[in-house]
Amino acid sequence: MSERRIPAPSGPGASRGLNRRALLQAAGMGAGVLAAGAATVGRVVAATNTSDSAAPAPAADLPLTGGPDFPIGLYWPPHPYQTTLARYREITDAGFTFLITGNYQLDEASANQALGMADQVGLKVLVAGDPRVSVVAQHMTVTDDRSVPTSITTADATEWIRSATGSYARHPSFAGLSLYDEPGTDRFPTVGALTGIVRTATPGLLPYANINRGNGAHYTRFVQSYLDTVKPALISFDRYPFLTEGLDTDYFETWAIVRKAAMAAGVPAWTYIQSAGFNGHVTPTAAQMSWQVNVSLAYGCKGIQYFTYWTPDPARGEGYTQALITTDGERTPLYDAATKLNAGWLRPVGRQLKPLVSESVQHLNDAPAPTGTTPFAPGAHLTSATGDPAILGVFKGATDDGTRHLLVVNRDPDSSATVRIGLNSSTVEAVSRFDPSTATYPRASRPADLSLTLDGGAAALYRLSPHRSS
Fold first, then answer.
1. CB 129 within 8 A of CB 101
2. Which residues partner with 125 through β-bridges?
3. What is the rounded radius of gyration, in angstroms, for the C-alpha atoms of the chain?
C-alpha cells in the first residue's frame, strides 16, 4: 500500500515511522489463498454459525473490551518453532493477558498451534494474517456491485469470515480477528465491511484493526473518517515516542486527538507502547516503558499493547536491536521490567480505571506546552497544583455518583518529580491513595493538599470521595 494513503507524519520522528504492516505481510499469498478459502467455506462449528441479522454485541460484551480485567497484549510472539507451552507460560508469567499472532504465524496451522498453547495458560488470542481474511482486507472490495473490479459480494465475504473463524472456534483462547494493520483511507470501507460481518455473523468475537499515528487537522479528519466508516468496537493506534534525538512530544497531541474522538464515538481507545529498539528509536528503559503506560492511562487508555515482545529477525530490516525476548529466545532486562510493570501496577490499576470515564487531562507546569495539551486550571475538585511538570487525569464513574479518581503522572520519563495538589473540601470529603499490592484504597483521610514524589515515568492513583449529600 502506498504510504501516500496514510496520514502524513509530522514531528521529530516523522521521517522514520515504523511500518508495522511490513511485519504482518509474507510472500506467497496468491491463488493458493483463494483455494484455501473456497475449500473450507461452510466448515463452521455451531459457535460461529449465527444469523446475519443478529445485533452486534456492545463493546462491553466482547472479549478483552468487556469484563473487569484490563487487556495487556503483545505483538510479535514466539515464532512457530518456539510456540511451546513453556514459552506461553513465560508470557503469562510476565502479566500479559492476550497476544496478536505474527512472527511467521501466517496460516491456519500456525494460528491453531498458538491457540492451542494459549488455551492451556489462559491467554486470549487475536488471529492476524489468516489468508482468507488478509486477501479480502488487503486486495478486494466488499460490495454487491459486481462491476467493481476485484470485488467480493457481502454474502461471499461473510462465508470467508465464517470459514476463518470456524477454523479456530474450538479454542477457548480465540478472541477475534485482526483484520488490518494501519489501513489507509482507501481501505476503510473494506475494513468496515469486514468489521460489520464479524460483529453480525460471529457476534462473540472481537473485530480488531490498528491505525497509524498523525497530528493536526489532517489526522483529526483521518481518525474521524475511520470511526465513521469502519464503526469499530475499539480504536487502537501506535506511536513510539523515544527517538534517538529525544522525546517526541507530538505524542501527546496524537493521544489527545484519539481520546476526544473515541469518547465521542463511545468506544474504548487502545495503544501500543515502545518496548524495542529499532531504526531512529532507542531501546526504552524500564522507566520509559512505565511512562508510556501511565501517560496513556491518564489519557483514558483502555488497553495496552507492547511492540514488540520477541525481537524481530534482523533480516526483516528496520534495525531491531532488543525487545523483551531476543531473537535467540533469551530474556532481556525489558522482560523483567515488563513483568514488574504489568503485574505490579498495570493489572491492578487498569482494573480500577477500565470502567471509568475520562473527564479531563491537564498538564501541570509543562512549558513550553506541547501541541495539543491542556494546561492545568483549577476546577470543581482540584484547586491548585504546583511543583514539577506532571500530567493529571481525572475520571468519573459511568454513572456519576460524585466520586472522582485522580491519576498523577510524572511528566519526566527519566527523573523524579515532586508535586503538590490542592483539593476542594466543598466537593471532596475524603481522599485515599490506591495500593496496587493489595488493590485497595487504605487510610482515607480528610481532604488536604496532596504532596507526592514520583520516580521517573511513575504515577499514583487517588480516589476522591464526595460528601454524602453531594
1. yes
2. 99, 174
3. 22
